[in-house]
Amino acid sequence: HLSDVDRKRMARYGLLPLVTDDAMRLFDTATATDLPVLAVTRWDTAALRGRGDQMPALLRELIPATRRAPQAAPVGASLTQRLAGVPEADRDRTLIDLVRQQVAAVLGHTDAQSVPADRSFQELGFDSLTAVELRNQLNAATGLRLPTTLIFDHPSPAAIAALLRDELTVEEPAAADLMTDLDRLEELVRSAPADDETRSRIEARLRRLLDLHQGAARQAAEQELDSASDEELFALVDGLD
């Protein structure tokens, strides 16, 4: 018997179930032909076309895929750009959420929150077919070429997220870009209306930005102190004399 996960996977691939009587009739018809290889199937052509480049090669001549608009940037690039805009401390959570979303889609769950990050894929009900499908989904989402043994080498969503963190190259925003944005902000402030209400609102926003910047600097300094060796701390104290 097919499980609910099996049925949902078949639907994503464009395979429709056959009523038993129809299946047996088609089987009899197939065995009466001289053709060496036949597949008794029903296809959801709309679902197949929706797979685009992921449509199985054997079906591309039968059901041409619809043309997709060219992407402005590779998928992997958009993910790394997204990660670059996330504080480093939150990037692991972003990647874990990405993996959980793909796992939920493969298993047919509607909510990624139902996928525990530290639960093994075996406990989640994965088999060889769902393992390959998850690998393919993550390849498409990240732009990486992950191995077919992905869930066996990295047996939980959290483990795969850690792998993605190592494999993806996140380019930090350049300081020069930030200074350019600050220059533009300065020009906007100079040209802002001169009424008291506008000046007060601008001042409040700028003070919040300054507090944010100073808070980040303090946090970085505290982390540096926490990780400093005894020799480095003594050298710092000596430098204060």
UniProtKB/TrEMBL annotation:
It comes from the Bacteria. Pfam families: PP-binding. The keyword Phosphoprotein applies. One of its GO terms (molecular function) is fatty acid synthase activity. Keywords: Phosphopantetheine, Phosphoprotein, Transferase. GO terms for biological process: fatty acid biosynthetic process. Residues 93-168 form the Carrier domain. Gene3D superfamilies: ACP-like (1.10.1200.10), NAD(P)-binding Rossmann-like Domain (3.40.50.720). InterPro entries: ACP-like_sf, PKS_NRPS_Biosynth_Enz, PKS_PP-bd, PP-bd_ACP, Ppantetheine_attach_site. The keyword Chaperone does not apply. This is Phosphopantetheine attachment site.
